Amino acid sequence: MIPAPFDYHRPDTVEAAVKLMADLGDSARVIAGGHSLIPLMKMRMTDIAHLVDLQKIGALKGIAIDGDTVTIGAMTTQQELIGNAALAGAAPIIREAALQIADPQVRYVGTIGGNVANGDPGNDMPGLMQCLDATYHLQGPDGAREIKARDFYEAAYFTARADDEILTAISFQAPAGGQAYVKQKRKTGDYATAAASVIIAKSDGNCSAASIAMTNLSDTPVWCEAAGQALAGSPLGEADVENAVRAMLAVINPQDDNKGPAEFKRHTAAVILRRAIERAASRA
Amino acid sequence: MGKMHIKLTVNGKPVELLAEPRELLIHVLREELSITGPHIGCETTHCGACTVDMDGRSVKSCTVFAAQADGANVTTIEGLGTPDGLHVLQTMFKEHHGLQCGFCTPGMITRAYRFLQENPDPTEEEVRFGMSGNLCRCTGYQNIVKAILAAAAELNAVKEAAQ
Ligand SMILES: Cc1cc2nc3c(=O)[nH]c(=O)nc-3n(C[C@H](O)[C@H](O)[C@H](O)COP(=O)(O)OP(=O)(O)OC[C@H]3O[C@@H](n4cnc5c(N)ncnc54)[C@H](O)[C@@H]3O)c2cc1C
Ligand code: FES
Ligand code: FES
C-alpha cells in the first residue's frame, strides 16, 4: 500500500501556500492531518504530483472566542477541539461530535479544516457546521472570500472551494439553547449510518427556534430547514417531533451500501433525529 | 521526485536518513532503522498495531508520511523499556495476561503510555474509550484493560511514595 510518488512542500505562511498551489497547478493538493487523504493515496485513487503540507502555518491553528463569535483555525485538530474548555462552554455540540469521530489516534491528527473541506458525506463536521450556520473562510490567489457551510457542498467530494483555494478558518455565532449530536455507527472508527445535529432554543416552555442537519444520508450533508420550522413555535409534543421527522425524511436521499439498505437508513435517521431533539430540548 | 533528507529523533537518538516523501513512517522505522516493534496489521488506519508516540501524540505510523514526520520526536515500544528493565505497562501486561500472540502489544502499550500521561487515574470505561483505536484479535480486551488499570495504580503509588 505505497502511494504513487509526489513532491513534498512545507510552506510556513498562508501566502506561501496559496502561491505554491497557484504555481503548481492542478496536480497539487494540500495535506492537513492526512487521515482522509493518505488512505485514498494508498489506494491510488488520486492523481497528486505535489503535496503542500499546512502543518507549519501557525496562523491556521487555534480557537478564538470574541463575544459570541467563535473562530476556529483550519488546522485545529479534533483532539484540540475536545480539550478546549472555552469552546465546550460556547458550543458544547462540537466536543460531543468530535468525541464520536474515529478513534483517539485519528483525532490527534485529523483537523476540522480537513474534515469540512474533504467533501466526504461521511464526515461528521460538515452537517454540524450547517446546523450552526457556520461561515468558511477561504484564501486564494485572488484574495480572501467567505462562504456559508449551507452553500458549500455540491456532491460527494465536490465543494464550492476552488482547487487553488485554502480553507483558513471556520466561524460561527455561539448558539443559544440546547444542542445535541447523536450518531449511529456500527463500531468505533466507523462513519455514521445516520447522525443528527440539533439546536433548540426555548422561550416560555415552547420552542422558539430550531436548526437540524443530517449526516451521511445523501451525497452531501443535509440542512433540513423545514424540519426546524416544524418545531419552531411548538411545545415540542410528540406530534410536533413527528412533523419534524417527516420533514427530514422528505429531504434526505440515502443509498444502499455496506451500512445497510436505504430503507434501514431512513428508519435509523428517524430514530436518531427523535433522540437528538429530545436530548437538545432537555438541555435547552 | 527525488529522496528527501529527513531528520528525526527516535527513542531519544537523533537520526538522519534519505527517504522518498511517499514512504510511510512505519516503513522508515522498520526497514531503514530496523525498529520492528511497531507492527503492520491492517495498513488501513484501523488496527493500531503501528501506533507510535510522535511529539506527544499517539499516531498510526502507517498513515503518516516520513516527510510529514521530518523534525519530529518519535517514541516506539523500544524506547519505553528493555528486556532487563521493563516499563511498568510491560510488567503489568505480562502479569495480567494482557497478551496472547503479542502482535497488537507494542501498539497497545505505546498508546496506553500516552493515555496514562493524559489521564493518570482513569476509570475502566475511560481506559476502554482511550484504547478504542487499538484492536486485539486474541485477548478479548479484558486483561488488557486490567493491565492498564494495574499500571496506573502502580505508577500512582510510585509517584506518591516519591513525594
Ligand atoms: C479509521 C478512520 C476513521 C474515521 N472516522 C471518521 C468519522 O467517524 N467521522 C469523520 O468525520 N471522519 C472520520 N475519519 C476522517 C478523519 O476525521 C479525517 O482526519 C478528516 O476527515 C480529514 O482531516 P485531515 O486533517 O486528516 O485532512 P486531510 O486528509 O489532510 O485532507 C482531506 C482533504 O481536505 C483537503 N484539505 C485539508 N485541509 C484543507 C484546507 N485547510 N484547505 C483546503 N483543503 C484542505 C485535502 O486536500 C484533502 O482533499 C476517519 C478516518 C480514519 C482513518
Ligand atoms: S497498520 Fe496502521 S492502523 Fe493497522
Ligand atoms: S494478543 Fe494477539 S492480537 Fe492482541
Automatic annotation (TrEMBL), chain A:
Which Pfam families does the entry link to? CO_deh_flav_C (PF03450), FAD_binding_5 (PF00941)
**This protein's superkingdom?**
Bacteria
Q: Which residues form a coiled coil?
A: none
Molecular-function GO terms, alphabetical: FAD binding; oxidoreductase activity
Q: Is Oxidoreductase among this UniProt entry's keywords?
A: yes
Tell me yes or no: is Nucleotide-binding among this UniProt entry's keywords.
no
Assigned keywords, A-Z:
FAD, Flavoprotein, Oxidoreductase
The segment(s) forming the FAD-binding PCMH-type domain are: 1-177
Q: PANTHER family recorded for this chain? A: XANTHINE DEHYDROGENASE SUBUNIT C-RELATED
Protein known as: Carbon monoxide dehydrogenase medium subunit
**Which species is this UniProt entry from?**
Rhizobium subbaraonis
Automatic annotation (TrEMBL), chain B:
Q: Which organism is it from?
A: Rhizobium subbaraonis
Q: Does the keyword Oxidoreductase apply?
A: yes
Q: Does the keyword Calcium apply?
A: no
Cited SUPFAM superfamilies: 2Fe-2S ferredoxin-like (SSF54292), CO dehydrogenase ISP C-domain like (SSF47741)
Where do the 2Fe-2S ferredoxin-type domain residues begin and end? Answer: 4-80
Q: What is this protein called?
A: Carbon monoxide dehydrogenase small subunit
Q: Which domain of life is it from?
A: Bacteria
PROSITE patterns in the cross-refs: 2FE2S_FER_2
Listed GO MF terms: 2 iron, 2 sulfur cluster binding; metal ion binding; oxidoreductase activity
Keyword list, A-Z: 2Fe-2S, Iron, Iron-sulfur, Metal-binding, Oxidoreductase
